[in-house]
Amino acid sequence: MNVLWRSIRRGCVTLMSRPVFYVLCVVVVPLAMTAFFVSLLEKGVAEHVPSAVVDLDHSDMSRNVTRNLGALQQVDIRYKLDSYAQAMDYVNRGEIMGFFMIPENFGEDALAGRHPELTYYINFGYIVPGSLLVEGYTTMSMLANGAVVQGLLSAKGVPEVEIKPVLQPFVNQVHLLGNPTMNYGVYLVNSFAPGVLALMVLLVVAYNITAEIKNGTTREWLDAASGSIVVALVGKMLPLTMLFTIVGWTMQLVFYGIAQYPMNGEMWVMMLAMFLLVVACESLAVIVCAIVPNPRYALSMCSLIGVLAFSLGGYSFPVEDMYSGIGIFSHLLPMRYYFLIYVDQALNGLELAYSRDYFMALLAFPLVALLFLRRLKKSMQRPVVYVP
After folding, report:
1. Strand, helix or coil at 102?
2. 20 to 30 A Cα–Cα from 54, which one of 14, 112, 178, 321?
3. HSE (CB half, 13 Å, CA atoms) of 122?
């Protein structure tokens, strides 16, 4: 216990040697990103995406389409332009995210049954506002089509009671499970903010270990642990684990307490998952440092792994639909299993037994890291002179 305490004390001294760096990476960045995402999606979804209408018809029907489009919650008609070229110029300058184009003779062709085309152009470089515009423009196109059909049938003398079944032959009943309010923050914030925390864990642990190699203090680090690599790593990781876990629990307090995101399971389960996520990311960073005991390479690999988690974690695109050669890497990322636990426990409120495999996967990371400790110890005993 004296040896362990001496190793822990040295780990705390290492953290205090660069307090600004560690406070910034461990505390400020994860909590700042949490506050940013929560405030950004405070209303649940982005609203009033800047848009424009190019009306080349100027008929009563086209003006009615423009008014109805502007009444949609997700669309904000900022400009009424006169040409396609002018609208594209506004898109290229970033003043609007897309525009809805009504062709010439739209009203006349619609009433004559000549099938005029309503077209819209969207800047899909930004997926969230682009998706909102697709939804709004598509809805308006369908409503315009229904209005034309209703006008034609009314002109032919079809009673109103017979027109409605033609326009809407059946009624959809939609029951949204897990996220009934369609709040984008429920899945975006609960995945991206912990993903930032996981990235910080990887980078800070990799830096903390490889800085010993860079500074040539690895033998002192081992001597403080009486030559035990396990005690040395526990002493160095324990303070970081406590700090990162407290930060992670604070993030969850913001999610489920302040932002009132759904929590259909037990809170202690998600707190345990956060703790295991921190430990798993630390273990993954230890594995990387054992394979490449070099600050530049280790930090580069951890950065790559942390960033790829946002794409391969499965919360922006389902892993099942990825190419098999790409999707297989998602099983090597701790964030993947934390996200699956979140879906099962917080959103769906399933029994804990349904998530046991994901908990076991997180526990497997520190067990695998044990296999690389001998290699890491050799690198610590014979450190290579660091070349800037």
Report:
1. strand
2. 112
3. 19
Pairing mode, if any, of strands 49-55 and 98-102? parallel
In the chain, % of residues over pLDDT 70: 92
Q: 165 is written with which tokens?
A: 């079944």
Per residue, the 3-state secondary structure of 309-377, as one string, reads HHHHCCCCCCHHHCCHHHHHHHHHCHHHHHHHHHHHHHHCCCCHHHHHHHHHHHHHHHHHHHCCHHHHH
Please answer whether residues 375 and 290 qualify as being in contact, where contact means their C-beta atoms are separated by less than 8 angstroms.
yes
User: What is the pTM for the complete model shown?
Assistant: 0.78
Map residue 57 onto helix, strand or coil. Answer: coil
Residue 65 burial (10 A CB sphere; 0-12, 13-18, 19+) = buried
Spatial separation of the C-alpha atoms in residues 69 and 156, rounded to whole Å: 28
Summarize the confidence of residues 99-119 as an average pLDDT: 82
What's the token pair of residue 27? 């505390």
Give the DSSP letter of residue 43. Answer: T
Host H or E run for residue 75: strand 75-81
Nearest to 154 by CA among 172, 142, 167: 167
User: Alpha-carbon distance 301 to 350, whole Å?
Assistant: 35
**Dist CA 8 CA 225 (whole Å):** 9
**pLDDT of 180-195, one tens digit each?**
777 777 878 888 899 9
DSSP state of 260: -
